[in-house]
Design brief:
236 residues, Ferritin, elongated, 0% strand, mainly alpha
Length: 236
């Protein structure tokens, strides 16, 4: 009985080692097979997708387009405030910079896929001129957005993107490289942006407090805030 127990313990230890180390195993759904690291490729089969977790890859594929959509929304708002008849260079600079940041996040995700030989799916790579009247109306409203609403919409977008990135990280929790890429720098930048925007909105509210009945004072307070953003005195 003692010999049987020792043998069972030894077999259990070997099984644990194989699972942890990713050693090949007989179960096609276990061990290394989960990571799609196929080491039996012939020269005529290269290149092809390798060493990835399917649910992580699907989550990233679905998220890339959302990052680009957020970038385009920031771009539309930034272009509005950069116009001469609006002339709010501070928030325009912030919004255009936010567009670049969201685009850089998408590029990081594309780079992750490229390292594994995974092409971007056509549904996420196709961008066409908007003809849907509902979407056109939403974009047109961005051209008339006021200062406070722009800050609030930016905050809501950052919160939405952050929540979605958490879902990507959850899907990639077994892909240590993927989870690391999306935790830092992407998730760190998201929380940094959320904190700055909440503080900026509070500062803006303090400046315009009581100015609703005096449009000239409100415009001056908005201008003062915008100059603070432009000079880096107010973080957004």
């Amino acid at each position: 009985m003692q010999r049987t127990a020792l043998l069972a313990l030894a077999l259990l230890s070997v099984a644990d080692w194989r699972a942890v180390s990713g050693a090949p195993c007989e179960d096609p759904n276990g061990c290394e097979a989960n990571f799609n690291c196929n080491k039996t490729l012939e020269h005529d089969q290269v290149p092809q997708a390798s060493c990835y977790i399917s649910k992580c890859e699907r989550a990233i594929q679905d998220h890339v387009q959302f990052e680009f959509n957020a970038a385009f929304t920031y771009l539309a708002m930034g272009a509005h405030f950069a116009q001469e008849n609006v002339n709010r260079p501070g928030i325009a600079k912030f919004l255009l910079g936010a567009a670049s940041e969201e685009r850089s996040h998408a590029i990081l995700m594309l780079d992750y896929l490229n390292k594994r030989g995974i092409p971007l799916k056509p549904k996420n790579a196709r961008y066409e001129y908007v003809t849907d009247p509902v979407i056109q109306d939403r974009l047109n409203k961005l051209e008339m957005i006021d200062y406070k609403d722009a800050l609030t919409q930016a905050l809501n977008m950052e919160l939405d993107v952050t929540q979605r990135i958490y879902h990507v990280i959850k899907a990639c929790e077994d892909d240590y490289h993927g989870a690391d890429v999306f935790t830092n720098p992407i998730l760190d930048e998201q929380h940094h942006g959320v904190r700055n925007l909440q503080g900026a909105i509070k500062t803006f509210d303090n400046l315009v407090e009581g100015a609703e009945a005096n449009p000239q004072y409100k415009n001056y307070a908005e201008y003062t805030f915008d100059m603070g953003v432009l000079k880096g005195e107010i973080a957004v």
